Amino acid sequence: MARVPAEQRGPGLGRDAVRLLVSRGAEQVSLHAFRELPRLLRAGDVLVVNTSATLAAAVGARLGGEELVVHFSTRGDDGRWSVELRGPAGGGTTRPRAGGPAGAVVELPDGGRLVLEEPLAAGADRLWWARALPEPYGVPALLRAHGRPIRYAYTERDQPLSAYQTVFAVPAADGTGSAEMPSAGRPFTAELVARLVSRGVQFAPLVLHAGVASQEAHEPPYPERYEVSATTAGLVNAARAAGGRVIAVGTTAVRALESAADARGRVRPAAGWTDLVVTPERGVRAVDGLLTGLHEPRASHLLMLEAVAGRAAVRLGYAEARARLCLWHEFGDVHLLLKDDNRNQPHCWSNAR
Questions:
Q1: Nearest-CA neighbor of 204 among 240, 252, 248, 262?
Q2: Which has the closest alpha carbon to 18: 313, 264, 267, 333?
C-alpha cells in the first residue's frame, strides 16, 4: 500500500517519483521510472486528462447520539446530493456503516441538516440521496469551511487538500467536483507536461466528476456527471485519423470519452450523466491505451483494463507488479496498458466482479 504521497518518501522527491509499469499486449511488460514517460510515447499521441478538481468531501456530523462522517459524493440535477454515511474509526479514518433509514435527519456544522430520502440504487444501501436543509443550503461552502479529503485506513496520516489535486485540476464555478481524486493524473508535474508537449504529445481535457469508491465495496460504478468538449472531440478524432494513439489518463477519462464515442469510435461533444460500465464484452472504441493506478483484486475497474489491453496483458502486468513490489492506490505506482488487438478472444476473469 502507498501510505503517503511520493514526495513525502524522501528528500528531493516530487510527485513524479513513482514507478511506471508498461504492458504492451499479452507478452511484454516492463518497469520504468514515471519520468521516462515522454520517451515511451510518440509524437502525435494524445493524452486525455480529467480536469475535475477534488473536493474536501468528508464532513463530521451527528445522527441522534451517533457520531458520523458524511462523504458527499455527487450533486444531482434536483439539488440533492448522493452521500455515504460512515463511522469514525480513529486517527482520521472511517469504517463502513449502513445507510439510512429514510427520513433520518443528520446534523451538519453551522446548523445545517441532511435529510436522507432514498437509496441511490435499488437493493443497495451504501449511498443515499439526501436533501440539505434549510434550502438553499450551500454544500460547496460547507465543504470549503468544514470538509477534509476522503481518506482510507491504508494511508498513514491526514493530508492537505492540495495533495489530492492533480496538475490538471480546474475548480468548477458551481463548486462541484470529484469526491475522490482522479488519481492517475497525480504523478504529472508541470515540468513533465512541458517535456511531453515538446515531444509532440498533445493533451485533451475533459471532465468527469468521480463519486465515492469505498474500498470496502466492489459495486460497479454509479452514474456520474461528465463533459467532453468539441475541442477535445476534435483533437481525439484528428489524432486517430493521423495514426496517433489516444491514451486515457485514468478510468474516469475512459468512461467519459467512451460515453461520447459512437460505434465506430468517432467522438462527439457530449455532456450530462453517464452510466456506462466498460467491460470486455462491450470493449473500447475511442481509446488505444490507459494510464491508471493499481486496483484491488475484485475492483470492477479491472474489467475496463481488460477491455483496453486484454485479459492476458492485465494478468501479466499484475504478476509483475506483485513481483516488483509496486505500490497500490492513489499515492502509488501507475500502469500504462496499450491496446492488445487480440483482446476479444475468449476469456474468463474470475474475481473481477
A1: 248
A2: 333
Helix %, strand %, coil % of the chain (to 5)? 25, 30, 50
Distances (CA, A) of 37 to 47, 188, 303: 11, 10, 24
The number of residues in the chain equals 353
Question: What is the secondary structure of 146-175 as a DSSP string?
Answer: H-B----TTSSS---GGGG--TT-B--TTS
**DSSP line for 32-53:** EEGGGHHHHS-TT-EEEEE-BP
* CA gap 30, 322 in Å, rounded: 13
Cα-Cα end-to-end distance for the chain: 21
Residue 240 to residue 289: CA distance in whole angstroms: 12
| Phi, psi angle pair for 184, to nearest 5° | -65, -25
The DSSP H or E segment spanning 313 is helix 311-323
Q: What is the pLDDT of residues 187-239, one digit of tens each?
A: 999 999 999 999 999 999 999 999 998 655 567 778 999 999 999 999 999 99
Q: Is the peptide bond before 134 cis (omega within 30 degrees of 0)?
A: yes
**What is the per-residue pLDDT across 105-149, written as a single tens digit (0 to 9) for each?**
999 998 999 999 999 887 778 899 999 988 766 899 999 999 999
Grid coordinates standing for 318?
499484475
**Radius of gyration of the chain measured on its C-alpha atoms:** 20
Classify residue 257 as exposed, middle or buried by CB count within 10 Å of its CB (0-12, 13-18, 19+).
Answer: buried
The owner of cell 456527471 is 225
Per the DSSP assignment, residues forming a β-bridge with 8 are none
Amino acid at the residue 37? L
**Separation in Å, CA 199 to CA 43, 136, 140, 218, 234:** 6, 49, 39, 39, 20
- Residue 191: CB atoms within 10 A of its CB come to 12
| pTM, full prediction | 0.92
CB 23 within 8 A of CB 317: yes
Q: How confident is the model at residue 153 (pLDDT cuts 50, 70, 90)?
A: confident
